[in-house]
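request received
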Amino acid sequence: MDMAKYRVLFLEEATEHLSEISSALLDLEKEMTNSEAIDLIFRMAHSIKGMAASLDYVPIAEVSHRLEDRMQGIRAAGCVSSPAELALLFRGFESIEAMVRAVRDGQDLVPDPEIAEILSAPVAPVAPVDAANAPERANPQEAKKKLQDLTPVLEPSPSQTH
Amino acid sequence: MARILVADDASFMRQMIREIVESEGFEVCGEASDGIEAIDEFKRLHPDIVTMDIVMPRKSGIDAVRGIIEIDPGATIVMCSALGQEALVTEAMQAGAKDFIVKPFKPECVIETIQKALEKEV
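response:
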């Protein structure tokens, strides 16, 4: 199989999916019961996981898997439990986005040792929100800009082919 | 040679399955990117076998299996699943799917599963 071709396809689709996840997270920020946004993030994380696993991008597959699992729980519950949980989702998104960028740039994939564990951890309902102590998350505008930087997809780098 | 309908919302996965099965001489007669399209394309193309992703927009792969089996109870459908989806695979098999393949795809497993599913049909 011509894996360079699949690397390009991965970058195209993962970038689109990340853009959709970013928009859905912003929707969830406004309305934490937005079932369409919840479902979309679940499906996009699942899709990125499958593609990444096919290309042996194990750290991307791992974080996507955790994000997918977390979204499955949120889907079952019908809502994001708290702003703290939403911040975790942003953190997972950021981690995947950074790794996809590393693939695009031909860099080695560096696993984020914390993120898989963080995404798997239970989040206690928090009310009221303590913004000062909430986990740090991406600035949505900054995240959007990073995504724009990912396109157009560059030509495959020989060092990234398997 | 058997005609295959490939249903998956990821173009990446559709192309990968296409490449694997065409290398063994199968014909991909159509592609679908969601469950509703899978049912519509099944009606239109009457494929010998369908490879069906589980997680898809608009209508899930499991609901698409139910829709296709309603049209043709003898339809041959193979699910494409990921690790950790065992419960969903069981549900799909109960709905009428014949077998399943696990992502990431191993070409020899994909071909073997499709061939076995087609033999079951005979």
